[in-house]
Design a protein that fits this description.
Blueprint (H helix, E strand, L loop, with lengths): L8 E5 L16 H20 L5 E5 L7 H6 L20
Parallel strand pairs: 1-2
Length: 92
């Protein structure tokens, strides 16, 4: 709107970590799952309101079993796959 060359994207990293802490044993409880789902629903609604004017990039461990969520996932870095390929890593 102001003709400024600023990229219109936001990157968020591990936003569900408060609900899935590293020291927690086992699966998150249903209340935590609901809160994570609500957080992502809120983000999706804000992006929809902006009608394509903002790209949101999220890296997270959350993996919701919702069609709208799964359709938005570009990559799952599990089972030896990662943002940095293993063959690029330098051995100790």
């Amino acid at each position: 709107n102001h003709e400024r060359p600023v990229p219109a994207f936001l990157m968020l990293d591990q936003i569900s970590q408060v609900y899935y802490p590293a020291d927690q044993q086992g699966d998150p409880n249903e209340d935590d799952r609901l809160k994570v789902k609500q957080m992502y629903e809120w983000l999706f609604a804000r992006i929809a309101e902006l009608e394509g004017k903002l790209q949101l990039i999220v890296t997270d461990h959350a993996d919701l079993n919702e069609k709208w969520f799964r359709d938005a996932v570009v990559a799952r870095w599990r089972g030896g796959k990662g943002m940095v390929p293993e063959e690029w890593q330098i051995a100790d």
